[in-house]
Design brief:
With about 600 residues, the protein is an alpha+beta fold. The chain has helices spanning about 5-10, 15-40, 40-45, 55-75, 100-105, 110-115, 115-145, 145-160, 160-165, 180-190, 195-235, 240-260, 265-270, 300-310, 325-340, 345-365, 380-385, 405-420, 425-440, 460, 485-495, 530-540, 545-560, 580-590, and strands spanning about 50-55, 80-85, 90-95, 370, 375-380, 450, 475, 510-515, 520, 560-570, 595, 600-605. Helices cover about 55% and strands about 5% of the residues. The protein is elongated and about 85 Å long. Keywords: Membrane, Transmembrane, Transmembrane helix.
Length: about 600
């Protein structure tokens, strides 16, 4: 057995300075990325079980429900991609929704341990952190030599305006760590002799990405297709592309087979299963990017806090560009500076990146161009592409998210070039430093806005509900559960994650059939009871109840098989305050006098009415 170096040969030689610097840089990037992730989500960390994201509490409740349902489905042997627990009696096809199945399964133990709201927060924070670290790994190990350059590029991409905007409860879109992994494994297919193994790895990664963010996977595939085509057709790369093509196609073939096998059932459900739909429940004109938004500042940024933010996005979760004029100018300057010093191979890469950013920017404008909130008569390319299958289910505004990694790459390449060959004059170096600061400092993120949300009633948390609902029976809160009234799914998520058992609810927040022209819609088609309760809760006005109204409501109760109607003392409204007193008086007019159970008002529905 060899002696210890400290005893046999004295102190070990010091690590090479470059290695020490690189490790120190890696650690700094990790700490900065972690600090930013916690900073952005800090409002929720105060108490994840009682705090909610102000501008998107409905999506937060949905993802919490998906985590609870997915873990429950796996541990109980149920189908994680289709459920009858919501939208009674038709059920919901989760394969055409954002089911985040992989997250639900992997984090199921944590969900059972700390509950869906806290697990949601952990995943959201880890998404932001992992996006920064995986991009940093790809840049520093494969694309640039400077750790500083990799850090600048990665941190910009991970905390770009679009990512921070989607951190308002979107666990799918904040999973940006998938993109650099897909890029890495796609270009690994060029290697000779490893096409089978590399194809299998990419196929598994595609299946994982589909289960977490299918729309994001689709956009990534489109972006990589455009980039590879433009890059390969450039004269400087044609010979290399021609030589790599056989291995590349073999690997892609294996990828398609592996992903197809793993996703065969989800894809069947998506395109041919029950409760499927075509298109989406969102208007592509509304959910398209305003041309002026590219030069605007986002609300959750230093510039936004200073009053420079705008309302050019359809809602605060969709600020997909919002780079600001200084960053746009810096990007152009970086592109020109890189182009002037680039060899033909690097120019081909820059050309492909430029074409990619231009195409996706124009496509993000949607069917009709908008400028500073005003619609024009100018048709856009998406007006034609948006009619194609699959494309018609995408929101065009989100195509602008592809531009942020392009900008991040250009920033990284520029810093790398400056580090390799420092400017001869200090004034030039200072100009670059000022340019980066002016462009990036205003975009530094600020914490997400959060509020305290209404607690889940003790009637649910104590398990009292089980005395008023038969096994697999139907309970409904009022107002009935939809995106703006998410309480039903919040209650159900609590019951599932705390092993209390199952109860079904009518309605819910989901995408399903029933929209115009056979397209999808958000939630179920409204019926009389849901419309009456929405009117009371939203306006505070008790609707006029006639014998005809009672008959229609009884028909709804039979359709939904409702056994128990529950009104909490505090009802959560995602967009407005809910008038609980008006709901109580409306429920009394429809169902008779309620009984008080724990901290809720409750109506038992006679068997004859259900």
């Amino acid at each position: 057995m060899p002696s210890s170096p400290s005893l046999a040969t004295g102190p070990a030689p010091a690590s090479p300075p470059r290695v020490v610097r690189d490790r120190r840089a890696d650690l700094i990037v990790v700490l900065v990325a972690l600090a930013l992730a916690v900073w952005v989500t800090s409002g929720l960390w105060r108490d994840p079980n009682t705090r909610t994201i102000t501008v998107n509490s409905s999506d937060q409740a949905l993802f919490e429900w998906l985590l609870a349902f997915g873990g429950h489905a796996v541990t109980h042997g149920d189908n994680p991609l289709f459920t009858y627990l919501i939208n009674v009696p038709d059920g919901v096809n989760l394969a055409v929704n954002t089911s985040i199945t992989v997250y639900a399964v992997v984090f199921a133990p944590l969900t059972y341990l700390i509950g869906p709201p806290a697990t949601f927060l952990v995943i959201l924070t880890l998404n932001l952190l992992a996006t920064a670290l995986v991009w940093y790994w790809l840049l520093s190990r494969h694309l640039v030599r400077s750790r500083l350059a990799a850090g600048v590029g990665a941190l910009f991409i991970a905390y770009s305006p679009g990512m921070v905007s989607h951190a308002n409860a979107h666990l799918n879109w904040t999973a940006g760590w998938l993109v650099p992994l897909l890029i890495w494994r796609l270009f690994a297919l060029r290697r000779a002799g490893h096409w089978l193994r590399d194809g299998v790895i990419l196929g598994v990664l595609v299946a994982v990405a589909f289960s977490i963010a299918a729309e994001g996977l689709f956009f990534t595939a489109l972006a990589l297709g455009v980039f590879v085509a433009v890059w390969a057709l450039h004269p400087a790369n044609r010979a290399e592309a021609r030589a790599a093509l056989p291995n590349f196609l073999r690997g892609l073939g294996v990828t398609a087979v592996v992903a197809g096998v793993l996703l065969s059932y989800p894809l069947w459900l998506h395109f041919a299963g029950p409760q499927r739909f075509h298109g989406t429940g969102f208007d592509p004109v509304i959910h398209s990017e305003d041309i002026a938004a590219f030069a605007a500042f986002p609300r959750r940024s230093l510039a936004g806090e200073a009053g420079l933010g705008t309302s050019l996005a359809p809602n605060p979760t969709e600020e997909n560009s919002f780079f600001g004029i200084p960053l746009l100018v810096l990007t152009v300057v970086c592109f020109v500076a890189l182009w002037r010093r680039a060899d033909p191979g690097r120019r081909a890469t820059l050309w492909a990146l430029g074409v990619l950013a231009l195409i996706f920017s124009v496509l993000s404008f949607g069917p009709i161009a908008k400028v500073d909130g005003r619609r024009t008569d100018l048709p856009m390319p998406f007006d034609l592409l948006g009619q194609l299958p699959v494309v018609n289910a995408a929101l065009p505004a989100r195509l602008a998210l592809v531009v942020a990694p392009v900008i991040g790459l250009l920033l990284a390449y520029t810093v790398d070039q400056l580090r390799a060959a420092p400017p001869r004059h200090r004034s030039t170096e200072l100009a670059w430093l000022v340019g980066f600061a002016v462009a990036l400092v205003p975009l530094l993120p600020t914490p997400l806005l959060t509020d305290e949300r209404e607690p889940i009633p003790r009637f649910i948390t104590s398990g009292t509900w089980r005395h008023y609902v038969s096994p697999d029976g139907v309970l409904t809160p009022v107002p009935l559960t939809v995106d703006i009234y998410p309480d039903g799914q919040r209650w159900q998520a609590y019951a599932l994650s705390h092993r209390q058992g199952e109860f079904e609810i009518p309605g819910g927040f989901f995408l399903g059939p029933g929209g115009p022209d056979g397209r999808g819609r958000i939630g179920p088609v409204p019926r009389t009871l849901s419309a009456l309760m929405d009117q009371a809760g939203r306006t505070g006005l008790v609707p006029i109840v006639t014998d005809g109204t009672i008959r229609e409501v009884q028909s709804d109760l039979r359709h939904w098989r409702i056994e128990t109607v529950v009104l909490a003392d505090q009802v959560h409204g995602a967009k407005f305050e809910v008038d609980e007193e008006a709901l109580l008086r409306t429920g009394t007019a429809l169902f008779g006098e309620p009984q008080r159970v724990d901290d809720v008002w409750l109506w038992r529905i006679p068997p004859a009415d259900r």
